[in-house]
Structure formats: structure tokens, C-alpha cells
Design a protein that fits this description.
By secondary structure, the protein is α+β, with helices and mostly antiparallel strands. Helix content is about 50%, strand content about 20%. The N and C termini lie close together (about 10 Å).
Length: about 140
């Protein structure tokens, strides 16, 4: 089985005191990738049309932080919560594996190397995907 793994990060690994550094990944079997990509693309298109906003992707900041496009169109919290719930339902029906690693500073930790923080986060992501692959979680 060939896995495609998409990785994205959020936050600043060299500024852990101001907030966590998050690495998220989605793994999908190569054969199921087109279905997953098309499903997400269709979902984003339907949200864009339903709410009357011009978007090509949805970020957590859109749902939680109320980004500029969503603010300009005055998309209220109840509608943003509904988008989140609908997206969670969509993802749960796809044959994908989601992983999220959160790196936080504890106490007076000083980050000497932002790349080290990224390496630790990525190592955890790949370890989790390796375990999932070993136990054939994606089938």
C-alpha cells in the first residue's frame, strides 16, 4: 500500500511561549486520494456558495478566529460551528488517517533551534503513521 501524507504546520516553533506549535497530517491510500480530495473540494465549494464568501480552503482561523473574509460577510458563530461539524462528519466518512502533534513550552523552556521543534513534531507524526501502517488501520 502506498500512502500519501499531507503535512501542515501552524504557529511559530521559535515562539512557544506565545502559543503552541502544531503539526497536522492527513494520510490517505493512494487509491483513495482522489475521492478524498474531491470530497473536500466539493465541501469547500458548497460552504463558499452557501455562505456567500469567496474561499478556496478553510482554515481553523476562519472558524475560530473569524478571518477577514468571514468577518466581512458577518458569518456568525452558529454558522461557523455548523461548518466545523459538517466538515468533521465528512472527514469521518473518508478513509483517511488524521494526526495532530502539539508542541508547547513547559516552564521557562528556551527554544534554541526552531528546526529541532519541527523535527520532534515530524518524528511523532511519522511514528504514528508507521504504527497505523503496521496495523493496517487504513484499508
Amino acid at each position: 500500500m502506498c500512502l500519501l501524507i499531507y503535512i501542515d504546520e501552524s504557529g511559530k516553533p521559535n515562539e512557544l511561549r506565545s502559543g503552541p506549535f502544531v503539526i497536522a497530517s492527513v494520510a490517505v491510500d493512494k487509491l483513495g486520494a482522489d475521492n478524498a480530495i474531491n470530497s473536500v473540494r466539493d465541501f469547500v465549494g458548497s460552504v463558499s456558495q452557501r455562505l456567500g464568501i469567496n474561499i478556496n480552503e478553510i482554515h481553523t482561523s476562519d472558524l475560530v478566529g473569524y478571518s477577514n473574509e468571514w468577518r466581512r460577510r458577518r458569518v456568525d458563530i452558529s454558522r461557523r460551528v455548523q461548518v466545523f461539524n459538517d466538515f468533521a462528519q465528512l472527514i469521518s466518512g473518508l478513509n483517511v488517517l488524521l494526526n495532530i502533534v502539539v508542541v508547547r513550552a513547559l516552564g521557562n523552556v528556551v527554544v534554541r533551534s526552531p528546526d529541532g521543534v519541527r523535527r520532534v513534531g515530524c518524528a511523532h507524526i511519522f511514528r504514528r503513521h508507521s504504527i497505523a501502517n503496521q496495523y493496517s488501520i487504513l484499508q
